[in-house]
Q: What sequence folds into this?
């Protein structure tokens, strides 16, 4: 499955609210060098994952300014990972493919989802880290 380009806040919100798997969202710019380095990594990853369980999205910050602003994107690339219909954490800069694979696996596991859902104090990040 190819990377899916998202151009509007409404489109992103629809995907996030209706997709039951893991969402990896790359906020990028066409003029950004590190974004150009990350793009083939995410394209390759998109071909390796099960599209019924993982969606990899690309959002051009110049085309979707409202969405970038809502998520506080101040530099690119910024990649967010979400599950259970909400964004869980974000990362700045281009990372190796294994980093994103591990994040997808982390949020795909039932133990991580249970820990995130039952966390009453602190952030989901700490709950998920302790679950793994």
A:
């Amino acid at each position: 499955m190819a990377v899916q380009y998202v151009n509007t806040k409404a489109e992103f919100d629809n995907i996030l609210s209706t997709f039951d798997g893991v969402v990896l969202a790359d906020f990028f710019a066409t003029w950004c060098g590190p974004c150009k380095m990350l793009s083939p990594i995410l394209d390759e990853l998109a071909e390796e994952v099960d599209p019924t369980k993982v969606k990899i999205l690309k959002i051009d910050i110049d085309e979707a300014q409202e969405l970038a602003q809502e998520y506080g994107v101040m530099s690119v690339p910024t990649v967010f990972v979400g599950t259970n219909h909400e964004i869980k954490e974000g990362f700045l800069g281009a990372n190796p493919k294994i980093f994103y694979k591990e994040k997808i696996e982390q949020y795909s596991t039932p133990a991580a989802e249970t820990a995130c859902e039952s966390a009453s104090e602190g952030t989901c990040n700490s709950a998920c880290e302790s679950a793994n």
In short: The mean pLDDT is 86. DSSP finds six helices and five strands in the chain.
